Amino acid sequence: MSAQHTEAHAHDEHGHEEHASMSRGKIWQVFFILLGITVIEFIIALSLVPSGTIPLNIANPIYIILTLAKAFYIVAYFMHLKFEKVGLIYSLVVPILFIIGLILVLTNESHHWIDLIR
After folding, report:
1. How wide is the angle at C-alpha 65 spanned by C-alphas 59 and 111, nearest 5°?
2. What does DSSP assign to residue 88?
3. Which one, of 72, 79, 77, lies nearest residue 37 by Cα?
4. Are 64 and 103 in contact (CB under 8 A)?
5. Cβ contacts of 27 within 8 Å, gap of 6 or more
6. CA 30 to CA 78: how far, in whole Å?
7. How far apart are the first and last CA of the chain?
8. Hey, what's the torsion of the CAs at 91, 93, 98, 102, to 10 degrees?
9. Quick one: which of 67, 45, 65 has its CA closest to 56?
10. Which residues of the chain have pLDDT under 50?
11. Which residues contact 66 (CB under 8 A, 6 or more apart)?
């Protein structure tokens, strides 16, 4: 066997070992976690908010937190980011945090301009 072929075969084995923890059981576990979060969101939206148990100004931040939790599970497990190197994770997460901060700042600023027009 050539050295190049052996190196490629070793790289393939390393890739399989790296993602070996995504078994069928783990996929179902993540599925049921996502399903549970979605059920909680539906209970809040269809039952608790209309009945007045939770006001809308409290429900909205809860929706955002639950949605971010679902996004974490999807990105971490189904897009395999959990199995990547820390540098790659930071290179993706840090810009996303800056974008979220920019959206929050711009949203706050837009309310200021709307108040000036009134």
Report:
1. 65
2. H
3. 72
4. no
5. 77
6. 9
7. 78
8. 130
9. 45
10. 8, 10-18
11. 37, 40, 41
- Token code pair at residue 66: 């639950």
Amino acid at the residue 115: D
Long-range contacts of 30-34 (CB under 8 A, 24+ apart): 30/73, 30/77, 30/78, 33/73, 34/70, 34/73, 34/74
The owner of tokens 């994770």 is: 89
What amino acid is encoded at 18 in this protein?
Answer: E
What's the rounded Cα separation, in Å, for the pair 49 and 45?
6
Q: At what angle do helices 24-43 and 56-73 cross, to 10 degrees?
A: 170
